[in-house]
Description:
Radius of gyration of chain B: 17 Å
Order of helices and strands of chain B: EHEEHEEEEEE
CATH topology of the largest domain in chain A: Rossmann fold
Radius of gyration of chain A: 20 Å
CATH topology of the largest domain in chain B: Alpha-Beta Plaits
Structural class of chain B: mainly beta
Number of helices of chain B: 2
Number of helices of chain A: 11
Bound molecules: zinc ion
CATH superfamily of the largest domain in chain B: Aspartate carbamoyltransferase regulatory subunit, N-terminal domain
Oligomer: heterodimer
Largest sheet of chain A: 5 strands, parallel
CATH superfamily of the largest domain in chain A: Aspartate/ornithine carbamoyltransferase
Helix content of chain A: 25-40%
Strand content of chain A: 5-15%
Number of domains of chain B: 2
Amino acid sequence: MSLKGKHMIDPNDFSLSELDEVFDLADRMVDDRDLYGSICNGRILGTLFYEPSTRTRLSFESAMLRMGGKVLGFSDAATSSVSKGESIADTIRVLSSYADVVVMRHPKEGAPRLASEYSFIPVINGGDGGHQHPTQTLTDLLTIRRYKGTLENQTIAFCGDLKFGRTVHSLISAMSYYKGSKFVLISPAELRLPEHLKYGLLEKHNVDIYETENLEEVINQVDVLYMTRIQKERFFNEADYMRLKDSYILSKSKLKDSREDMLVMHPLPRVNEISYDVDDDKRAVYFKQAEFGIYVRMALIALLLGVNVNVNRK
Amino acid sequence: MLTVNSINCGIVIDHITAGNGIKIFEKLKLDEVIFPVVLLINVPSNKLGRKDIIKIENKIDVDLTMLGLIDPDITVNIIEDDKIVNKMNTIIPKEVQGLFKCKNPRCVSNSDDYATPKFRLAHSNGKIFYRCGYCEELTSYTI
Lengths: 314, 143
Ligand SMILES: [Zn+2]
């Protein structure tokens, strides 16, 4: 089995064993990063950012540089030479000869998929509008796998904006392929998981879903608590916002009776949905999660390039 | 009740959901033809309550896929010598490309001419939806 030459547009494009291959390599990289410090010598990562996202771009660049590769690209289409009105299909066919693997961030949903249909080199989706951000999802999966030792039989609570939050949609969709996944959805009524997603999950995977508006009702019964930001403008009115805003903030006191081995995760950046006093709780893993994001990107790039990853300490 | 002579040779599009008759009439450009065409609306129907019917005195080609997308319950009867010689049902395609656009305004297919999305039949829970191959949003075909 080889991932060489494949694209990463949607986590579900990979089989569970292919995902495991990425996570296994990422685990080895966490254990001994320096060992992989030159596996991408002579290789180039193209970063095609049609909209700015400094953090995502830096995480990909860091991943490539840490393996001895080089990077080139643009960070904002408005100031780059990517001509307006040129089809993505044309752009990618030209840029394919400048790099060995590309990551594309684009405001239009489906743009990386379109690029992958015409690209001669592997395309990684670095986020397409409100649709997908697969390397965030791989990061989340790796984090759960590392702490829990498995991705099966996990009860995962998602808290906050479940209507617009693409990281949530993507992680739920990916987790629903694992045996025994249960989902607890905590959100105000107006920010619930969209019906068509819920319907699709129930139809395809027969998963267990419980919905509530109350974080405290369920916090002591879950293995993972995935927090997301609720933006004020998502509320229909000021009164609802004022009434509900504190219900979706995680504080140390709300954590006190939760499971010892529960994980508190967050895609970052946070605003105020997790109080700072939670940071030194051992259940809070969001900064480690961000760190694992580099390793999962390293592993993904290396496997799509097909470079030799079987390196050993002499 | 109003009666209309049956046709000798042509097609009858039957079991059209009341209200859709005029839309299909327009879609098939029947206002431009030179042969006789009858559009009946609000005809009492056991199955639908009310239905529309289109009778066309000519064996024109109708796109059963397009009809299926508009209204899956439609039946098409082919008439020769005053008799029904063939009864056809509409086709509900598993995959569609090029017949309609993705309704998601943020979808790449609505801003890039190269992208013609492949839609896959999503579910038919009373209604038929198609999932866009690019953005995965659901689109229902409406005319
Ligand atoms: Zn679309």
